[in-house]
Amino acid sequence: MRSWLLCLFALTVVVSRSTQQNYPRNDNININAILQNDRILLGYYKCVMDKGPCTKDGKIFKRALPEALPTACGRCTLKQKVAFRTLLLAIRAKSETRFLELLDKYNLSRANKEGLYSFLATGV
């Protein structure tokens, strides 16, 4: 019985630590290069919308979107929040329609819509 409780405790610790981890780190992404080139920004959009190929950075962004949109990047590091917010705002500035398509694809229930828009407006 005692070993059973010890195993259960260890499993609880592992699960709770894994849910608190940040997204895969890729802090070397050059946001300015993406924003200065509409073709590259469109490539990121096509990647996350399954309409085109993905770069390594695009794949990371795409994997994070299903959780990051409803939680307003809740598990992101500060640098990841800046990059995530900057890319979303750039997509929105270029095309509100594409931005809404992105939200529809990854945030179907629009969970925490106010939180996401607040994050986009303030970065917090």
Automatic annotation (TrEMBL):
It holds the Pfam family OS-D. SUPFAM superfamilies: Chemosensory protein Csp2 (SSF100910). InterPro entries: A10/PebIII, OS_D_A10/PebIII_sf. Residues 1-16 form the signal peptide. Keywords: Signal. PANTHER family: CHEMOSENSORY PROTEIN-RELATED (PTHR11257), GEO07322P1 (PTHR11257:SF13). This is Chemosensory protein 14-like protein.
